[in-house]
Structures are given as structure tokens and as C-alpha cells.
Amino acid sequence: MNTRILAAFGLLAALSAPAGAHVVLDRAEVPAGTYARIALRVGHGCGGAATTALRVTLPPELASARPMPHPGWTIVIGPDPASGTAAAPSGSTAPGGSTAPGGHAAHAGHGTHAGHSVAGGQAAAGGHGGHAAAAGPREIAWTGGRLDDAHFDEFALLVRTTAEPGTVLALPVVQECEGGKVARWTERPSPGERTKEPAPLLRVVAGR
């Protein structure tokens, strides 16, 4: 079995990780150039502690991202925390309220993963698919709620990607819990590797 086939198996394993083990996406694929609903599925807390906030950093290839209001939680939309600029509650919601659309994101780099391009790093700005890139990757957060360790929930987004089919996007997630506990689902596995805290991955496929 050649290296390319082994790498493909490694990518498939990363995309189909057990939902109860990590924070994962409810789907493995989205069509290019059209809107699709995705949801971050939280299967447990942090070492038994209840979840109180969930923060996801969006790669620039998600040219549009609109969070769904979640009863009991507040939405905060802001720039990538790595940029050094604090997120602001512009477009945030009171529990059960409405929200403004998520903005464009940029300044992400590309690597390779199992023969596919992988997005989600930091590099120079640029547009994709004829769409201009805006300032900086953006973070969307749900805060102020409480999800018990014994329960699971999903936090939804309506997204549109400008990436080419075959691209695999990484969406790093930080899960904050009671008692100051934090789980960082941000690792990008190498082909065939399983990591302890993998970032959710999303493969772009040809639109129908």
C-alpha cells in the first residue's frame, strides 16, 4: 500500500473521529460555493466540569459564517484571538435573541494534508474564488451558558466556502469550563496520526 493511500486513510480517520470523544462537526463535508449548515457538537465537559463557553476560529475560506442563536447563551463575534485584538460583542445576542451575520475572514495560510490542501494557519492575506478577503480570521463564541458534563449539545453556523473542492479546512475550538478548566481542540494531525485534542476538520466537495 503506497504512501498516498495510507495518507488518505489517515485523513478519513481524522474527519470521522468519534463524536463522544472530542468537540467535532456534525458533518464531514460541505459543498463549494453554496451555503451549508454545520454544527459543533460538544460531547462532554472538561474533566467532569460543565462547559460555559465555546470559541471557534474560522479559516478565511469560510467567506461567510452566521451563528445560530442558542437559548441561554450570548454570541460574541470578533477577530482571531491570535491577532491580539479582543473580540467585541458587536453582532452578539442576548439569550434567545437574534444575531448579525458573521464577517469575512482572511490572513490564513495553507499546508498539505493527505494529498489535500489544508487551511487554517496564519500567513499573508489573499482572496479565494474571486472573492476579496477581509481583515483577519474571525472568532465566533457562545458564552454565558452552562452545559453539564453529562449532556451534549450542538452550536450551529450557516457557512459558505470559497475553497476549491478537495480542500480540508481546520476549525480550531477552545472549550471553557467551570473552575477555570479549558480544553483546546486545536491540533492538526499528520497523515495517519491521532492526536489527543484534534481540531474539527471540514472537507470541501464539488457543489451540486
UniProtKB/TrEMBL annotation:
InterPro entries: YcnI-copper_dom, YcnI-like_sf. CDD domains: YcnI_like (cd08545). Residues 1-21 form the signal peptide. Residues 22-77, 129-204 form the YncI copper-binding domain. Residues 81-122 have a biased composition (Low complexity). Pfam families: DUF1775. Keywords: Signal. Residues 78-134 are annotated as: Disordered. This is Uncharacterized protein YcnI. It comes from Muricoccus pecuniae.
